[in-house]
Design goal:
Helix content: 25-40%
Shape: globular
Order of helices and strands: EHEEHEEHHEHEHEHEHEHEHH
Number of domains: 2
CATH topology of the largest domain: Rossmann fold
Structural class: alpha/beta
CATH class of the largest domain: Alpha Beta
CATH superfamily of the largest domain: Glycogen Phosphorylase B
CATH architecture of the largest domain: 3-Layer(aba) Sandwich
């Protein structure tokens, strides 16, 4: 049995679709899966059991990436094609069953919407799979700390921070992240002397650098540009808490069952908040509609729209999430 699963070009959307993939893996445990998605998201599925082929789809002019996908898939007879991008390509393949996603319902979270599209009886949370090599690399990057008395090495508290976003408008300022980590790790705070792991892509180093420089070297874990998405997930699972934006990293952390606080401004938290019982959000004092309705608003050039979200607001949200995840069963 062969199943073709076509999912998003974006990292966050691909993560949110992984629960649907897990549901069909459980329904058809003998199936061989081919997964097609954007190059950035492709590594997410490399360790999935039952994977036969992984097809990255870099965008090409005139939508020729869809023609490339058709050429690679047309020689096969498929038992099921699941196309979450609703492409015409799916109609040009031989398959016994076809499942296409229509226009998203903005009254539902994306995870709920996909479960409804598939006709699932319950909502399937995002699920990703790690290889032993990815887990071992994370252990090397975030090692246990040897005790001065010679006792067993321990895993001290590690806070993960994702200080970058895919566009400037929804990025909290680096100076705010720097102040937040200082408050959270001072002697009388919630995480005294905790180590701080900073996550970002290599091309985002300039954005992350002020945060890195604010962290004392002995407590700094610089992961910028050093890991792929699944290695990031393995590292996140070694963190006690993650604080990030409306971004793929926050979805990764939530999928890894890490307590996750996502900072929202101009996004849609009701549709795209990190999914799971250990996740929470904190929003700007202005609604998304207010933020993007300014006369000079421009998606490409507008500076951060997150300034009404103060460090104190985020600090309180971190405390609330931490106490919640320590007192409520998940």
């Amino acid at each position: 049995m062969r199943i073709l699963f076509i999912t998003s070009n974006r990292l966050g959307d691909a993560i949110l679709s992984s629960g649907l993939l897990a549901a069909f893996r459980e329904r058809y445990p003998e199936a061989r899966f081919t997964i097609a998605c954007g190059p950035l998201a492709a590594p997410l599925f490399s360790a999935m059991p039952g994977l036969e082929r992984l097809i990255p789809m870099p965008k090409r002019k005139h939508s020729l990436h869809w023609f490339d996908l058709w050429k690679r898939c047309v020689p096969y007879r498929w038992s099921l094609v699941i196309d979450l991008r609703g492409s015409m390509t799916s109609y040009l393949l031989w398959t016994k069953q076809r499942l296409l996603s229509g226009k998203a319902d903005d009254s539902l979270h994306r995870v709920e919407f996909l479960s409804r599209v598939a006709g699932l009886e319950s909502v399937w949370s995002p699920q990703l799979w790690l290889s032993d090599a990815q887990t071992e690399k994370a252990q090397d990057l975030i090692p246990r700390i040897s005790r001065p008395d010679g006792g067993p090495a321990t895993q001290e508290t590690v806070i993960g921070i994702g200080p970058t976003a895919n566009w400037r408008g929804k990025q909290w300022r680096a100076a705010f992240f720097a102040e937040l980590q200082k408050r959270l790790t001072q002697a009388d705070s919630l995480f005294p002397n905790a180590r701080i792991a900073v996550f970002a892509a290599d091309q985002e180093r300039d954005q992350a650098q002020p945060v890195l420089e604010a962290i004392p070297e002995a407590r700094r874990i610089d992961l910028v540009g050093k890991i792929d998405p699944l290695e990031a997930l393995a590292c996140l699972r070694r963190c006690d808490l993650f604080i990030g934006h409306d971004s793929g990293l926050s979805h990764l952390a939530a999928a890894g069952q890490v307590p996750t606080l996502a900072l929202f401004g101009p996004g849609k938290p009701h549709c795209y908040r990190p999914w799971g019982p250990k996740s929470a959000i904190v929003t700007t004092q202005h609604s998304p509609e207010e933020l993007i309705s300014a006369p000079d608003y421009n998606y490409k050039t507008t500076d951060s729209l997150m300034d009404s979200l103060t460090v104190s607001m985020v600090e309180r949200a971190v405390r609330d999430l931490w106490h919640k995840t320590r007192t409520e069963p998940c």
